[in-house]
Amino acid sequence: MAQVTIRINGYAYTVGCEDGQEPHLERMAGEIEQRINSIKALGGQSGEARLLMLASLLLADELFDMRNSMSAPPPSAAKPNSETRAKLRRIAARAEEIAADLTDA
Length: 105
Description:
Layout: E1 2-8, E2 11-17, H1 22-41, H2 48-71, H3 81-104
Antiparallel strand pairs: 1-2
Helix pairs in contact: 1-2, 2-3
């Protein structure tokens, strides 16, 4: 079993994986890091656990959308960058609302 050290939000984590899967694990960590950076860019920087939770919600939302789009016909044109940013803002705002509800409970 191989081990790889990944960095997410400035923290190093050593994770075990199957031999040869190290590059894949590093790419997955990079995806999480991108989501965290997006949240921070929107002014949503907070504690480590909250950032990881919000990044997880963003990834889950993307996975949900991908699964739904597999059964839908492909869009005729690519979305402009501004639409993608607007969607990310809406998702992040909704994730913040969910997190606030969990904190209040």
